[in-house]
What does this fold into?
Amino acid sequence: MGRLARIFLRNGLRRGVLRGSRTWLVLGGVGAAVRVVRRLGGGEPKVVFSEPLQPGETLVIAHGREPR
It folds into this structure.
């Protein structure tokens, strides 16, 4: 969807704004909106730690307070 949004945005500016095509202007706005929403969404989550667990081991995830 990113490539399609970029095509809509580019052609929306060229054909919509510069040449006066209302259809391309609307598609350019859709492309711009898709790009803004994707940037605000943050994209894919990042892996910050990865380690294999052996049988019998446990994983404790704590945030903001001491683990028990």
